[in-house]
């Protein structure tokens, strides 16, 4: 669990969280957005994700991998997510959401379980504002398109980041963070553009991959991993101090 640690008085954090939500809402509902060309109305989540069968062995296997990627939920003092349930990619947005709660806290939640809960209408997922912006720029500068109702949770990749192991197994990284994808491309010195797709599409591709298709490796945001490690280190240090 990650404590809000004194952010209750942070108005800047509140505005950050508000901005994330507003960016998603405005992008989703803007009537003249060029990204709405594929749909004239907002489809239900069940229709959008109809291709995902949550009762198959393939989904259970993929979900176990996705659950290693953290989102952040606002929880009460019992550790139960508050309603309406919202899971954030951005840990700072989650902290801001609980800033004015008495005894509020944030807790990690696996992406797989959160995606299934979202599809079943039990929660919402909120992407990082910077990632929504990166996805919007990608669509505006390329010939690609995907349903606007899926833009709220983009995934980033680059085909040239794919690799093949010595045993012939092909893999392709799928980043939750645009910044992490760009950094990986810079480190690999690849001469290509970053590509973007929706979480829905990435999951469907992972489930339907046939023989010869690369395995999609979903990569957690480095900022989220760092936040969890920092919280764990803080808890360890706190426990040692209590024992002194």
Structural class: alpha/beta
Q: What shape does the CA trace take?
A: globular
Roughly how many Å apart are the termini? 23 Å
Task: Give unreliable regions as ranges.
Answer: 3-48
**Helical residue percent?**
40-55%
Strand content: 15-25%
Largest sheet: 4 strands, mixed
- Oligomer kind: single chain
Main sheet: which strands, in order across?
3-1-2-4
Would you spell out the secondary-structure blueprint of this structure?
Layout: H1 11-29, H2 45-48, H3 57-66, E1 70-75, E2 86-88, H4 91-97, E3 105-110, H5 111-119, E4 124-126, H6 129-141, E5 154-157, E6 163-164, E7 170-175, H7 178-188, E8 195-198, H8 199-208, E9 215-219, H9 222-243
Parallel strand pairs: 2-4, 7-9
Antiparallel strand pairs: 1-2, 1-3, 5-8, 6-7
How would you describe what is shown here?
With 244 residues, the chain is of the alpha/beta class. Helix content is 43%, strand content 16%. It has nine helices and nine strands. It has helices at 11-29, 45-48, 57-66, 91-97, 111-119, 129-141, 178-188, 199-208, 222-243, and strands at 70-75, 86-88, 105-110, 124-126, 154-157, 163-164, 170-175, 195-198, 215-219. The strands form three sheets. It has a four-stranded mixed beta sheet. A three-stranded mixed beta sheet has the order 6-7-9. A hairpin with a 5-residue loop joins strand 6 and strand 7. Helix 1 packs across helix 4 (91-97). The longest helix is centred in the last third of the chain and has 22 residues, at 222-243. The radius of gyration is 19 Å and the shape is globular. 30% of the residues are buried. Residues 3-48 have low confidence and may be disordered.
């Amino acid at each position: 669990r990650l404590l809000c640690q004194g952010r209750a008085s942070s108005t800047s954090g509140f505005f950050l969280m508000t901005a994330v939500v507003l960016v998603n809402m405005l992008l989703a509902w803007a009537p003249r957005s060029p990204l709405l060309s594929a749909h004239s109305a907002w489809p239900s989540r069940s229709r959008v994700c109809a291709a995902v069968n949550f009762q198959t062995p393939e989904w259970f296997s993929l979900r176990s991998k996705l659950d290693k990627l953290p989102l952040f939920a606002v929880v009460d003092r019992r550790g139960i997510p508050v309603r309406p349930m919202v899971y954030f990619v951005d840990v700072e947005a989650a902290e801001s959401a609980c800033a004015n709660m008495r005894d509020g806290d944030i807790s990690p939640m696996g992406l797989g379980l959160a995606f299934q809960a979202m599809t079943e209408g039990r929660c919402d997922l909120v992407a990082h504002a910077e990632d929504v912006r990166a996805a919007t720029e990608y669509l505006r500068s390329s010939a690609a398109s995907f349903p606007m109702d899926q833009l709220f949770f983009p995934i980033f990749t680059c085909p040239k980041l794919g690799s093949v192991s010595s045993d012939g197994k092909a893999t392709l990284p799928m980043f939750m963070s645009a910044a992490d994808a760009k950094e990986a491309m810079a480190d690999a010195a690849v001469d290509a553009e970053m590509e973007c797709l929706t979480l829905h599409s990435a999951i469907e591709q992972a489930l339907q991959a046939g023989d010869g298709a690369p395995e999609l490796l979903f990569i957690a945001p480095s900022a989220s991993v760092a936040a969890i490690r920092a919280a764990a280190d803080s808890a360890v240090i706190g426990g040692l101090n209590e024992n002194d």
